[in-house]
Please model this.
Amino acid sequence: MAKISAAQVKELREKTGVGMMDAKKALVETEGDFDKAIEVLREKGVAKAEKKSGRVAANGLANIAIHDNTAVIVEVNSETDFVATSDPFKDLVNKVSDAIALQKPATVEDALKLKTEKGTVQDDIIETTQVTGEKVTLRRFEIVEKGDNEVFGSYLHNGGEIGALVLLDGADEETAKDVAMHVAAINPEYLNKDEVPADRLAEEKKTLTEEALNEGKPEKIVEKMVEGRLHKFLAEISLEDQEFVKDQDQTVAKYVASKNGKIKKFVRYEVGEGIEQNKQSFEDEVRSQLK
Model:
């Protein structure tokens, strides 16, 4: 049996990020063959990842990477916020974000196949699963391109619990960041009134009409009441018409216009939104980390 040195174990750990015992076992199993040891660890990582595939990963981080005229907003999930704040997980999120921004895949499936220093994005995710002991997934991303006269604005709330990416035509980066902060805080659904689907508008109008009639208002004034309430509803869900969070005397659109700009696009990710998850106490969360 080949003698395994501490230096070999250290090198394998630095290369793969696994624990000392896992690194030593892999080197012993492969009689000191470094490349084969890496393959063994990857295979074991895949097996562990498959066992965890049924778990719910609803925590994690949103992140934004900008390279020249390309920006991407990404959500990578873990099972607990304990892992989401760990260095291995944060390193993975940064690497995945950069890879997507630079290589521009069309789908999540394509993104998982992107080449990285250690193989592919999928290999990096498997390795992080192995290191952290939790299911880790790339949930979604959106790529945004800009022209030379356009500017990106980005904001991450609380380290990545919420991410907001904004594209402006004109203005400047400071203005764009202000709008991104507004998007993160207020959570608009649409860019402007024109983007609100007709069926959503019709349903809201029906609801408002019924409410007004139930209040006992005369039918002849119900229409005007509904029109006013509908206008208020649209202003609440449309970014351009919302009261700007830093100056409620003007709308977001007017604020950007005052800076010689116009809002072109926004994307907002809130980690875990739409994912059904089991509530876990802090005690249970800590116990799960000790297993």
